[in-house]
Amino acid sequence: MFVDQAEISLKAGDGGNGIVAFRREKYVPDGGPDGGDGGKGGDVWIIADSNLRTLMDFRYKRHYKADKGEDGKKKNMFGKSGDDLELLVPCGTLIINKQTGIMLADLVRPGDRFLAARGGKGGKGNARFKTPTRQAPQFATAGEQGEEIEIMLELKLIADIGLLGFPNVGKSTLLSVISEARPKIANYHFTTLTPNLGVVKGKGGDSFVVADIPGLIEGASEGVGLGHDFLRHIERTKVLIHVIDAAGLEGRDPLDDYEKLNQELFQYAKALKEKPQIIAANKMDLLFDEDKVAVLKAGFEEKQRPFYEISAATGAGIDELMTAAGKMLKDEEQRLEHESLNIETAERVVTLPQKDIERFTVRKQDGIYLVEGDLVRKLIYSLNMESMDSLLHFHRILEKHGVIGTLKEMGIREGDTVQIMEVEFEFTDQMDPGH
Known about the structure:
Layout: E1 5-11, E2 44-49, H1 57-60, E3 63-65, E4 85-90, E5 93-97, E6 103-107, E7 113-117, E8 148-155, E9 161-164, H2 171-178, E10 196-201, E11 207-212, H3 227-231, E12 239-245, H4 254-268, E13 277-282, H5 290-302, E14 307-309, H6 318-340, E15 349-351, E16 361-365, E17 368-372, H7 374-382, H8 388-400, H9 403-409, E18 417-420, E19 423-426
Parallel strand pairs: 1-3, 2-4, 7-15, 9-11, 9-12, 12-13, 13-14, 17-18
Antiparallel strand pairs: 1-8, 2-7, 5-6, 5-8, 10-11, 16-17, 18-19
């Protein structure tokens, strides 16, 4: 089953906590602090793998979580960092932030890597807080939480040439003739519900990949039918072979079909208008009216589109068509390469920008001052309520980062209630951070 879209949620590992510990050895009655730091949480990476063809695995499992870092240990020993989580996707996968709709990465080449969620840093053990005036700190800090994100994965097939056309014009038959691909072929609409790929070997020893894009219908650019799902795969192709039913067996006008389908392409993405196209007039073995052939050929020459008469059923004209397509592909590749000379090569490793951390917010509700945010969340998890040393350190950090000042600006008074996360305090400004 071909799957080209999936939604998953990712959670990087939380950092391990630093610990409070003291040396307890024989003949060392007053050993100093030796609590170690916690380990870093594991990151979540998404990696392009050339051996994969679909996003099938992500339909059955949608939630992924990297390992947590271990807590620190005694004797100043650090906790072990959590293992990174690596998720493999096919080359050509787009990664999109589900909440914002912003594209985060486009993994095109094998081995391209994207750091989707960073693991939290490990907390500091109490040995880190020893000073000449604080010989036995009774506190440590908690590890940071790992990042969480919901993303959408979208696969755009990477092919050199795309076979384009309305349903039942013979694209699948043509692909089976020019390559080793064996797509399902039948005489009814929408036989092809998933793109097929085939490798065409040229007479000069060169080869290229051709994709049979499923048959489109009017309104595809607006999402009618499976329009957007199919059009997505055309964007990466370098050359388009527009297959038409020259015989008009279903009462359709080939020139009108061409116009309507190109209109759908250009409405979906203006860049598709720049892609070179070749017209493959198929089923010529069933067209016996020479005047009709001449009118058809003249119509496409007027549009400045190379026109080739073929029959996928008999093989007539196929060699000439593929030779022309191979030459057009080389010309297009040279043009794109020339354009890219002035463009800096993208990094193979793509990372998310550091998120803008909400340090803290203060609001008053029902007479209580509520302090929230990443800064105080980490602090409150590290607080030892039974240690005056820990409380003093807590107060210093709040003052250093402006929390105390903000509370005063909002009119807090001695004895008012402050709530940080689920913990309530009675406000006092009598703690001297210098002692």
